[in-house]
Design goal:
Elements lengths: L2 H26 L1 E2 L4 E2 L4 H20 L9 H5 L4 H38 L7 H29 L4 H6 L2 H17 L9 H21 L5 H18 L6 H26 L24
Antiparallel strand pairs: 1-2
Length: 291
């Protein structure tokens, strides 16, 4: 089986297994009275074993991916499903950003009220980071729309250069927001999969942007995109709050779409490549083919 089919299928099957095992873990290994997980519970061991096995397989299978030198040849895909996944991911980021702004405003109001009576009792940093992350998710969603259009039509608008890095920066702030929101929780298993997924997907989008700036790392990008999607599907079983759930799905969908396109262009049959438009040509009304 070709790797462009084998690897995404492995992630989908592993993610489905991780989702089911995580639900089993919550049901059988978590004690709501003590708010602790039972040590060496079968569900926990099975979940960690499946995720570790799939991660090792991914690490082994992505070793021989060659390094395409440019962004568009690496991620070009004329498949409507590729465009649909990136458009859906963009709207999930936009919705997650809007909901995150509402959450951040509520946290800020709670901090203001508590600070009137007990100064310093509630830290301000979680609210500020959540607001900044959510605000950055709005242009990051626009960036994913541009990436989808560019990789579908093989065009390179000027705006892509200024916006493509915002997805990685939004992911970085999102990871920090999760850490600040749960940092006082001594039980890592309660939020660890969400935090790990955010970190892996942030790295995936960081390395995706590297293709646009002459720093392609296809093996690192593919591993972080696929393993991040794997952990994201598992973390959805935690039923995170709506803003985090939408960001989780949006980052995972976009990373999986780009990784699938890279693998298809690397290991699948050759695609007919349309003539690329010059940089910024689509921003004008002139036909770039006219002499």
């Amino acid at each position: 089986m070709r790797k462009d089919i084998q690897l995404p299928l492995l992630v989908l099957l592993g993610g489905a297994a991780g989702f089911g095992l995580r639900l089993w873990q919550w049901k059988s290994a978590y004690d709501p009275e003590t708010q602790l997980f039972t040590h060496h519970a079968p569900a926990t061991l099975a979940l960690l074993g499946v995720l570790a096995a799939v991660a090792v397989l991914l690490l082994v299978l992505v070793r021989n991916i060659p390094a395409p030198g440019e962004f568009l040849p690496a991620f070009y895909s004329p498949d409507p499903g590729h465009m649909a996944m990136l458009v859906m991911a963009a709207f999930l980021l936009l919705a997650g950003g809007l909901l995150g702004l509402l959450d951040g405003m509520q946290q800020l109001e709670f901090w203001r009220q508590m600070n009137q009576y007990t100064p310093g009792a509630v830290p301000l940093a979680p609210a500020l980071v959540r607001l900044l992350c959510s605000a950055l998710c709005l242009p990051a969603g626009l960036a994913l729309l541009l990436v989808g259009k560019s990789t579908y039509r093989l065009t390179m608008p000027k705006a892509l250069f200024s916006l493509v890095s915002l997805t990685g920066f939004a992911g970085l702030l999102w990871t920090l927001a999760i850490h600040l929101a749960h940092g006082v929780d001594p039980v890592l298993l309660r939020y660890g999969f969400l935090l790990l997924a955010a970190g892996l997907l942030t790295l995936a989008h960081y390395y995706a942007a590297g293709f646009l700036f002459g720093r392609p790392c296809p093996r690192r990008f593919t591993f972080f995109a696929l393993s991040g999607s794997l952990v994201a599907f598992t973390a959805l079983a935690d039923m995170p709050r709506p803003a985090d759930a939408m960001l989780l799905a949006g980052f995972a969908l976009s990373a999986l779409a780009l990784a699938s396109s890279l693998l298809r262009n690397t290991f699948g049959p050759a695609r007919p490549m349309p003539e690329r438009m010059p940089l910024g040509a689509e921003d004008t009304d002139e036909d770039p083919t006219e002499e």
